Amino acid sequence: TYGMIIPGEKEATINFTIHVNNEIASALNSGKEILDDIIILRLENGRDYYITVKAKYGRSCFGMSVDELVMYNDPIRNVPLDPIKRVEKYGTDQTAVLCVPKELWRIVDAIYGKGLEEEELFSISGYAEEVHEIRECLDTGEPFKSSFRIHSMADVLVSFLTSLSCTIVPANLLPALEIDAQNLQAYARNLLDGLPPIHYNVFVYMISFFRECLDHKLKNQLSSTKLARLCVSCLVAGDKMDESKQANQRRDGMHLIMIHFLESSTI
């Protein structure tokens, strides 16, 4: 970014806006990265001034992995970024204390409680201001406002799942061959057997929730096909969408597998 201040101008204020994407958020949450940079103020025919700009990152559940999130009962904003302080607070042998991330449970529970019959569920974007507030509630542990609308809740749920640093379904479990009626059930079983424990919990939890959504499809206009597409986007692809022909074929196979899970009565 480049800007110019003309001699004699009024006092100027410089505002910095930092965009933290999922990749950077993951590095910040793990303590591998910090928000620290140097800005050069260059005077025409004069010396350069080096200004250090630092910022403190408010830890967020967005951009973390489910394996990390299940280790804490505390709001994630209260979990120290510094590894040493984290060990001082939680000890050295941390293990999972939850079956699924509390943040995921909170948002799913909110939709389950009053939103299963919402028209165009998962089809309409949420309200930006509400989405921001809901994300803050998930990070800080604050209760949700009763005024939050369901579409904003659903928007945050999708954002949470797609922002995970590790997708729920690892790439190595995607089908390598074309899926058909003959091998569909075998691939579905292999998928479940290959999932890491916490990923398995989250996968089953989300499929169970989406089945509940389908029970109200006459009101919310959802279908197995729509939800299967959402499952692939949230649980398989994440925010790194590989558009190669082979990747698209494997996603098509996963789409059929997701329909199978959504329309089956058991897992």
User: Looking at the structure, what is the overall shape?
Assistant: elongated
Question: Which regions have little confidence, pLDDT < 50, spanning 5+ residues?
Answer: none
Strands of the biggest beta sheet: in what spatial order?
A: 1-2
> What is the chain-wise order of helices and strands?
HEEHHHHHHHHHH
N- and C-termini, Cα separation: 52 Å
The assembly state of the depicted protein chains is: single chain
- The helix fraction, in percent, is 40-55%
Counting DSSP E segments of at least 2 residues, the number of strands comes to: 2
The number of distinct helices, counting runs of at least 4 residues, comes to 11
Measured by DSSP, the beta-strand proportion falls in 5-15%
* Average pLDDT for all residues: 88
Q: Taking Cα atoms only, what radius of gyration do you get, to the nearest Å?
A: 22 Å
Q: Give me the secondary-structure category.
A: mainly alpha
Largest sheet: 2 strands, antiparallel
Explain this structure:
With 267 residues, the protein is mainly α. It contains eleven helices and two strands, in the order αββαααααααααα. It has helices spanning 22-29, 66-69, 83-90, 102-114, 128-140, 150-163, 184-194, 197-214, 217-220, 224-237, 245-263, and strands at residues 35-42, 48-55. α6 crosses α10 (224-237).
List keywords for this structure.
11 helices; 2 strands; mainly alpha; 267 residues; elongated
Summarize the structure.
The chain is mostly helical and 267 residues long.
